[in-house]
Amino acid sequence: MATHSHTVDSTSSPSIVVESNPSDSRLHELGIKSWPKWGCPPGMYPLKYDAEQTCYFLRGKVKAYPKGSTEFAEFGAGDLVTFPKGLSCTWDVSVAVDKHYIFTSS
């Protein structure tokens, strides 16, 4: 199964990095199973990241619209997503989210 990454880049804000279908060995290396879990029902959620956050989505479907950008990132079940420190965005959740997450201090 091929893994690919893509970023949503906007000149005015840091970018969201989406890694689709990371390998089991990569997930094990990151220690995903020991990370806290978080979930939310469908809806709109304004979020601000005061620290870099990496998430692994167990389920869900989200479009994230970075503040000040016309671009959006789309991710969901099976994706490993990194949100940069300082990012403000709105999540448009169409399928309830269940994810593991960790904050990384720079």
From TrEMBL:
| Protein name per UniProt | (S)-ureidoglycine aminohydrolase cupin domain-containing protein
Pfam family name, one: Cupin_3
Superkingdom of the source species: Eukaryota
PANTHER family, alphabetically? OS02G0620400 PROTEIN, OS04G0445200 PROTEIN
Note down the stretches annotated as region Disordered.
1-22
(S)-ureidoglycine aminohydrolase cupin domain: from which residue to which, for each copy? 28-101
CDD domains, per the entry:
cupin_TM1112-like (cd02227)
InterPro entries recorded? RmlC-like_jellyroll, RmlC_Cupin_sf, UGlyAH_Cupin_dom
